[in-house]
Amino acid sequence: MADLTTRYMGLSLRNPLIAGSSGLTSSIDNIVELEKAGAGAVVLKSLFEEQIAIEANASLKKAENNDLIYTGKSEALDYIDLKIREETLSGYLGLIREAKQRTVIPVIASINCVTSSDWITFATEVEKAGADALELNIAIMHADHEIGSEEVEARYFEIVSKVLSTVKNIPVAVKISPYFTNLAHMVIKLSETGIKGIVMFNRFYSPDIDINTLTEKSTGTLSNPSEAANVLRWMTILAGRTGCDLAASTGIHDGTAMIKQLLAGASAVQVVSSIYRNGIEVISSMTGDLEKYMEKNRYNYIDQLKGKLKRDENSNVAAFERIQFMKYFSEIV
Ligand SMILES: Cc1cc2nc3c(=O)[nH]c(=O)nc-3n(C[C@H](O)[C@H](O)[C@H](O)COP(=O)(O)O)c2cc1C
Q1: Is the dihedral angle over the CA atoms 26, 27, 33, 39 positive or is it negative?
Q2: Is 326 exposed, middle or buried (0-12, 13-18, 19+ CB in 10 A)?
Q3: pTM passes above 0.70
């Protein structure tokens, strides 16, 4: 029988299918069900940086209204810290603790952030609550024309460096978008910071326009299988070149799509839309397909197939892509 166990960020997973961050992982009942259904790990629904900031401001206002006299900055911060723990984080930390008590699969906490401000001190709480890892969803939509790419990229390194200086005992992963001037350079540099995983990619709100009502609308919250192609491109290009593990996310809807990402070099895949669309049973169907594929092709372990189709480290990726591009269009007359 094929052995589906694998390692991702130093964590041991019974199989490479991770239930990704979403409403599916926001309650203890769902997390227990995901484990029963066969998920290798779960990434909890993100706590948003803004939630922490809003609570911090609210607590500060309350403190001022209560005529709390600050004798020093540290007391004020202690007060804010305490309130945040009480009001915002307690639910999230409670979910981590309960998930750790009631399941055995790795529980990865998630924080959705865009800056390296005060929220970072709270990342340690996640660690103390028992999360096996922390995933930072750095969800910056690079749309400000007044900010250059270097400045945008610097923000990622600043966030990572601050988080790594506080979260010391659990692995940290970063979930990124594909929108960088030079994605390959960015991923490799990020992978060398001390993080243990990069999740490719975050999926942003996808816009559409209703031509009759002249309003902007969304193409839908859930992904389509065709969206996995871009992840596959970057997985084959980057696998074997990074200083940390890579996880694939977006458009992975069935067993075949998962196997492709593993062959491309992913250590694990994250699945969300397919579970919403096909139900929780899709997890065992996908891992079952992986097992059958491994048996048929005589792979005993995930490592024997992982990265088999990654690009040769010495290959000229840019030239290869250009040739494929030319061939692609010359075939159509
Ligand atoms: C309803 C819903 C809620 C989501 N919430 C989060 C979230 O809180 N944090 C996060 O990092 N990603 C969130 N995501 C994004 C998913 O984790 C994932 O990156 C994205 O859906 C692409 O993967 P998929 O094609 O398997 O759906 C959410 C996605 C959906 C559909």
Answers
A1: positive
A2: exposed
A3: yes
267 pocket-lining for ligand 1 (C-beta < 6 Å): no
Residue nearest to atom 6 of ligand 1 (CA): 22
Compute, in angstroms, the gap from residue 147 CA to the centroid of ligand 1.
27
Asked if residue 88 has its Cβ within 6 Å of ligand 1, the reply is no
Tell me the pLDDT tens digit for each residue of 115-157: 888 788 889 999 999 999 999 999 887 778 888 889 989 999 9
Nearest residue by C-alpha to atom 30 in ligand 1: 22
Q: Look at residue 109 in the predicted model and tell me its pLDDT.
A: 97
Instruction: Looking at the CA of residue 21, tell me the nearest atom of ligand 1.
Output: 17
Pick the CATH number of 6-330 from 3.30.980.10, 3.30.420.40, 2.40.50.140, 3.20.20.70: 3.20.20.70
Could you report the per-residue pLDDT of 12-22, keeping only the tens digit for each?
A: 999 999 999 99
Structural domain spans, the chain: 6-330
Average pLDDT, the chain: 89
The residue-averaged pLDDT of 36-60 equals 81
State which H helix or E strand residue 109 sits in.
strand 107-113
CA distance 224 to 81: 41
| Atom 2 in ligand 1: residue holding the nearest Cα | 22
Q: Whose CA is nearest to atom 28 of ligand 1?
A: 22
Pick the closest to residue 99 from 18, 30, 168 (CA basis): 30
Atom of ligand 1 nearest to the CA of 199: 19
